[in-house]
Design brief:
Helix content: 55-70%
Distance between the termini: 25 Å
Shape: extended
Number of helices: 3
Strand content: under 5%
Amino acid sequence: MESVNKKWAIKRLTINLTSSEAERLEKYCSITGRPATDVIRELIRSLTVESTSNAN
């Protein structure tokens, strides 16, 4: 089912983290057994943004 693969290929991001931020993320992922990608996606989804005329 190719549509499943396409939805994850919309945008790829590279982020710069301080060593303490990277360590915190790695520890959280180790404790929870979850991959960093899932944790970051969940955090992004939890963001509150105000509606604008340009919002998708």
